[in-house]
Amino acid sequence: VYFIDRALATFNAAQRGLYVEGVGDLNRRAAARAPGSPSFAALDTTQQDQVLRDIEQTPFFQAVRFDTIVGTFGSLN
């Protein structure tokens, strides 16, 4: 999480809009899957898995996946 936050504030700022739109879409999909749910984080794990499967071919998911891998292997701490 910290890597992506720092990246979006500095060298990867061009993707900030993609993340903002992607998180909004993720929360809208969560609300559609579980009416009354305020966010993706509020879903149970099964529902979260279903929503992630729905978006795994989107540019947002691909960016999050790539940035997570880079952050994992690029972290020296």
Spans where pLDDT lies below 50 across 5 or more residues? none
Major sheet: none
Large-scale geometry:
elongated
Count of helix runs: 4
Characterise this structure.
The structure is a single chain. The protein is built from four helices and no strands. It is elongated and about 35 Å long. By secondary structure, it is mostly helical.
Concise summary:
This protein has 4 helices and no strands. The chain has helices spanning 2-9, 16-33, 45-55, 59-74.
Feature tags:
elongated, 4 helices, mainly alpha, single chain, 77 residues
List the helices and strands and how they pair.
Layout: H1 2-9, H2 16-33, H3 45-55, H4 59-74
Helix pairs in contact: 2-3, 2-4
